[in-house]
Amino acid sequence: MTRRDDFRLGCETLLDETPKWFLSARLGLLSNQASVSQSFEHVKELIPRAGGHLRCLFSPQHGFHGEKQANMKESDDGWDNHSAIPVLSLYGSTREPSPEALRTIDVLLIDLQDVGTRVYTYGATMGLCMEAAARTGTRIVVLDRPNPIGGKLMEGNLLDPEYRSFVGRYPVPMRHGLTIGELAMFIQRFCHVGCDLGVVPMAGWRRRDYFPDTGMQWVFPSPNMPWWETALIYPGMVLLEGTNVSEGRGTTLPFHLFGAPFIDQGKVLAHLGRCGLEGVHLRPVCFDPVFDKWKGETCYGFQIHVTDRERFKPYRLGLAVIQALSLIHPEHFKWLQPPYEYEWEKLPIDILLGNGTLRARLESGEDLAGIESEWSPALGIYREKSADISLYAD
Questions:
Q1: CA 236 to CA 253: how far, in whole Å?
Q2: 3-state per-residue secondary structure call for the chain
Q3: Which residue in 71, 164, 311, 315 has its CB near the most CB atoms, within 10 A?
Q4: What is the pTM of this model?
């Protein structure tokens, strides 16, 4: 991959300019092990070098070092020996910074690699920080990073407020098409979160860019997001977290593989062939997960190969897979029960879908194109709102 001379991350732009507030403020930093420059230097090390006064670190789901697996594998507070400052977990006893913690700083910097999907929890953690900062008067500054799956294509139903959760806190579609900085602006403007917000944009990023177009090396932001292509598949295959079908956790290809011991590959493939899927090929495979669902058992399923990323609709693929499995294997296919990501009553699939009726419509075999057409007007309004806060040209 060839590095682009014109491309700069938000953190690099900030540290090149070193504005006056940066040099005088008490700083906190929400980040993890993927919060690095293009030269692989962590932002927590660059800030003091540029003259910033870093007082504490905050960590999201999966821990500061990205070591924890998913779904309520919590992290404790800790200590960063290199910086000699505390690390406060926002995925443990609390999911938002305490007023006491925010009063020790003037500005909370946020530098996290998002993956462009509503249910990826870093956006919710950022939003909770913004909500807490609005109550204490703490300034939030987001150091922007690329949306690895681009900023032009958007897909899915908007979140129903009744199904708001930690895996869906704000009314955006599953594939939301925003950078993390733009998502912060959306939350501030359209979700009435009145915090003092600043965004340091990237230089040289275009909405049409996928991650390889940046010339950067991918640094995994969470344990099961090992490659940027995983982010491209994730908006659909994450739905399997709400079922008893493996989404490939416990293998070297999380989200690229899916399967279960009971799957009839021929019947599933025949059904999916009628679902209008484009830009993707499903190759029958077998795999034995070493942890998580069906640990140590042979799963029959598929590897997902994206053949045309411009035509590929990951959310439609996820809906089609769930529909096929529920219709073909009703005696074996199951919806997992709560708790899931701090939701104790609603089914995990419903909060992942962000909707309380879509599950039943899939089970009934309803036409996917017809379902999609119903959320098209709301998605159009969302596109207009997104354009209003866009920081980048096509």
A1: 15
A2: CCCCCCCECHHHHHHHHCCHHHHHCEEEEECCCCCECCCCCEHHHHHHHCCCEEEEEEECCCCCCCCCCCCCCCCCCEEECCCCEEEEECCCCCCCCCHHHHCCCCEEEECCCCCCECCCCHHHHHHHHHHHHHHHCCEEEEECCCCCCCCCCCECCCCCHHHCECCECCCCCCECCCCHHHHHHHHHHHCCCCCEEEEECCECCCCCCCHHHHCCCCCCCCCCCCCHHHHHHHHHHHHHHHECCECCCCCCCCCCEEEECCCCHHHHHHHHCCCCCCCEEEEEEEECCCCCCCCCCCEEEEEEEECCCCCCCHHHHHHHHHHHHHHHCCCCCCECCCCECCECCCCHHHHHHCCCCHHHHHHCCCCHHHHHHHHHHHHHHHHHHHHHCCCCCC
A3: 315
A4: 0.97
Residue 71 has pLDDT above 80, yes or no: no
**Alpha carbon of residue 257 to chain centroid:** 18
**pLDDT at residue 238 is higher than 80:** yes
Does the pLDDT value for residue 1 go beyond 70? no
Q: What is the CA radius of gyration of the chain?
A: 21
- Exposure of 160 by Cβ count < 10 A (0-12 exposed, 13-18 middle, 19+ buried)? middle
Query: Tokens 């897909």 label which residue?
Result: 155
More confident residue, 371 or 2: 371
